[in-house]
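Re: ribulose-5-phosphate structure - here you go.
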Amino acid sequence: MSQDAMKKAAGWAALEYVERDSIVGVGTGSTVNHFIDALGTIKDQIQGAVSSSEASTERLKALGIEVFDMNSVSELSVYVDGADEINHQMEMIKGGGAALTREKIVASVAKQFICIADGSKLVDTLGRFPLPVEVIPMARSAVAREIVKMGGDPVYREGCITDNGCQILDVHSWEITEAKALEAQLNNLVGVVTNGLFARRGADVLLLGTPEGVKTVKG
Ligand code: 5RP
């Protein structure tokens, strides 16, 4: 079974968590694209979506799904998104697609975070996937120097401008054992917009696409 087939199976399985007549929080990425396609099949049964990126907004609108401004929504029943890595504590690294800040904002108002992923994303320890950190452009080098002092190896993601007009440092060589503490520490660096650790607000449900079918893991 291909990795994309496992992503698709996880994406479609998330439909079960969508409440009728609700506004759905929608993440970003190739796995979420399958979820958006699935959402299109029940578009008449939902009010619409709050989106975490311009790319997801475009795909939602192309399917005729209304996209609401986050400022007009106080709470979402579910937020559905992928991950670059997820551990057994349901802590994640996200931001491979550079949408981490808006993803974290939309996730923050959701009652349930449903993570959809193929089996390769489940890890014992976070950090093999480089940790994305979104920075204000003028602070990039200053933040990078602080991260080096913290033991990380930051690499500027050249040519990448986020939907917020910011830049990304991908931090290599970090074996992350205290994800919640590191998430807070990175957020405290002046010039950091967000980091890709989703530990303080991790996933509530993981739908993991595997060759044997979609496995459901609850946090
Ligand atoms: C985008 C993300 C994605 O959820 C993450 O990169 C996983 O992507 P994919 O579903 O394409 O494997 O955090 O910023």
